[in-house]
Amino acid sequence: MAACVGKVAAGLLNRLKTTASTVRTSSMSRTLTQKVPCSLWKLGRLSHVAIAVPNLEKAQSFYKSVLGAQVSGTVPLPEHGVYTVFVELGNTKLELLHPLGEKSPIAGFLQKNKAGGMHHICIEVDDLKAAMTELKEKKIQILSEEPKIGAHGKPVIFLHPKDCDGVLVELEQA
After folding, report:
1. Residue 162 falls within a domain, yes or no?
2. 50 is in which domain, residue-wise?
3. From CA 69, how far away is CA 159, in angstroms rounded?
4. pLDDT tens, position by position, 24-39
5. 111-131: string of b/e by CB count within 10 Å (b at 16+)?
6. Where is it found, in Gene Ontology cellular component terms (predicted)?
7. Alpha carbon 112 to chain centroid distance?
């Protein structure tokens, strides 16, 4: 019996050492993370991931009929040169983009990427104007002088991919 108790105690002691080591490592890694500078605006949630598609009806059918997602109707946004369709995912959305007109930025994207692909990510911000001011001070290229109204009816801006590690980033007023 004493041997059994000794083994249990040794096992618990080993678990405590492992847990303490893990907690120490976890807490140390938190202190080593980069400090976020103070800002007048904050990033919010991921609003959507936009995907350029060469065939909008086929893409809608795939997400609705094959994957069983809730899919919106097609909405033209002539000021952006796109047709949009939203796919509800619960915690975020996919935005399917298809060219509207010859000068559509999506037409150019699809000429380079015939099968389509990820076009941009959209992140909500709590103060878009403050974000624009600070990003300009930090020499981040914004693709328009003023925000435009996006697919959700809210002001949006786009940040140049060269300043965002190759990703086109849309910021949307929350």
Report:
1. yes
2. 43-173
3. 29
4. 444 444 445 566 666 7
5. eeeeebeebbbbbbbeebeeb
6. mitochondrion
7. 22
Task: Let me know: does 100 contact 18? Beta carbons within 8 Å.
Answer: no
Return d(Cα 77, Cα 95) in angstroms, integer: 13
Residue 29 counted as domain residue: no
Task: Indicate if the pLDDT at residue 166 is higher than 50.
Answer: yes
Residue 109 included in any domain: yes
**Residue pair 90/80 in contact by the 8 Å Cβ criterion:** no
Taking Cα atoms as reference points, which of 131, 154, 168 lies closest to residue 52?
168
User: Are 53 and 96 contacting, i.e. CB atoms less than 8 angstroms apart?
Assistant: yes
**How many separate domains does the chain show?**
1
142 within a domain of the structure (yes/no): yes
Report d(CA 46, CA 63) in Å as an integer. Answer: 20
Name residue 155's beta-bridge partners: 149
For 94-112, how does the pLDDT look when each residue is reduced to its tens digit (9 = 90+)? 999 999 988 899 999 999 9
3-state helix, strand, coil in the chain (%, to 5): 35, 30, 35
Let me know: does 49 contact 92? Beta carbons within 8 Å.
Answer: yes
